[in-house]
Model the fold of this input.
Amino acid sequence: MKNVLSLVDFLKQTKEAAASANRRLTHIAIGNEAGDADSLVSAIAHAYIASTTTTRHYHHDDDENKANQDQDWITPVLSIPRNDLQTQRPETTLLLRLAGLDEDKLDSYFVDVNDLLSLSSSSLSSSCSSSESTLVTLLDHNFLSDQFLSSSSWKVVEILDHHMDTASHLDTCPPHDNYEANQLHPRPPRRRIAFDKDSSTALVASTCTLVAEGWFQQTHTQQQTQEQQQLPSPEVALLLLGTILLDSVNMSPAAGKGTERDGYAIQQLLQRTDWSHLAQTSASSIIRMKTVNNNTKQAEQVQPDTTKLFDALQNAKFDVDFWRGLSVRDALRLDYKAFVVPLSSSNQDDDDNNNSPGGMALGFSSVLMPWKEFCLKPNVWKDLQQYMVQETQVRVLVVMFTYTISNDENDNDKNEDQGSPSSLSSSSLQRELLLCGPSKDDDSVFTALVHDLLLLDKSNDDNGDAQKLQLVEQPLDDDDNNNKSSTDETMAVRLFRQGNSKASRKQVAPILIRLLSEKGGNK
Done:
């Protein structure tokens, strides 16, 4: 295969171009504000693939821009500050390191969200006319963040996601009902959202699966021989592979995350990549020799050991000491997403700071440790209240606690094996939900939400098992909770064990949004 631009060189060149005073970013790829591995890696991989291949999966509307599109690269943008990536994303930094990126040189590789906002307020506004916009590809979400909406310099032209469709940006990214991922498309649709709204189910475990599918299609349409159909970058393939394994929980049937499309993507990445180069790098610890059949002949071939790779990433993600060392605020903001619950105009209150312009503000944090350990953090109730009321200003804050326990442990209170390397292969996923409401004894919104959630589990509707969260209310154990009484009058709190551990935030958030919206935000 001919030499191609390495991932490291691509990232350095896009960063240098963005730093140029005379350079306007023509097209960016950015993940969601939580900045998990899927968001960050899908943006990096998509930008690399789309920029280093001949055929682009996007196009401009006018002929002048179309003529220049091959001269422009897509710049991957970290949706979180670089420092947060270094200090709060251990599994992602490990994966980047395995792919040959030095975590001490992140400044030379990446434009981050702070850089982007700075560019927006300076070079973009001063050097570009109002008719020129930076094109945006959204990965792992399908609506432009509020921090960009104040400027007209952004135009969303492509969406790859696996969350509930918010119906945003329909003018530039219209829906496409007949798209089949396993069929060749000269120009795949701009809006690829792999989510079934009827069952609130994601059709793929990872946005990286959608990126990989696009990569497979490009190599098929551009290249003919078997050798040429190899994926040109083992580093990008490893980033995609590791993230899909993480998001699908190594395709574990018990976890219920991985789909047929995820499994196909994993196999294609393994089979169509020349991994021999990585065997001589820091990724050698997860590389193995494998005997494969090739034209009825057996041959030795190096491939990543998917179990070793998954275990290494999962260990880093669920590391007990890492999560214990985070403050309450850092734990809440590490994987936080904000949602807007649509309300009718008659039910909106302009004086309510917990309502966004388009409706009610709902916040959702994912924390990878049990509630009983989280509540031992200093000032937990004070900091929870401050994060909800002052920092995020949401009407309802939901915290999903996710952790693993050994299948050999019958007592749920004994979680010493949580996330430890020896327990991952024989562990099960556990979830708890903490619902935090506003400071009103008779708050009808929070009370109705709790009531409807519990009622949903008992209903006999046709929504399917995905809608059944199997919630069981749990005591808050006030003796361990750092003076909750100080916030009794300012915050309502309910804790539930979630029996349906397969329902992640991707499934739970749409349920909460629907229930809150149906009530219309009545107070």
Remarks:
- Residues 232 and 438 are 53 Å apart (CA to CA).
- The longest strand covers residues 396-406.
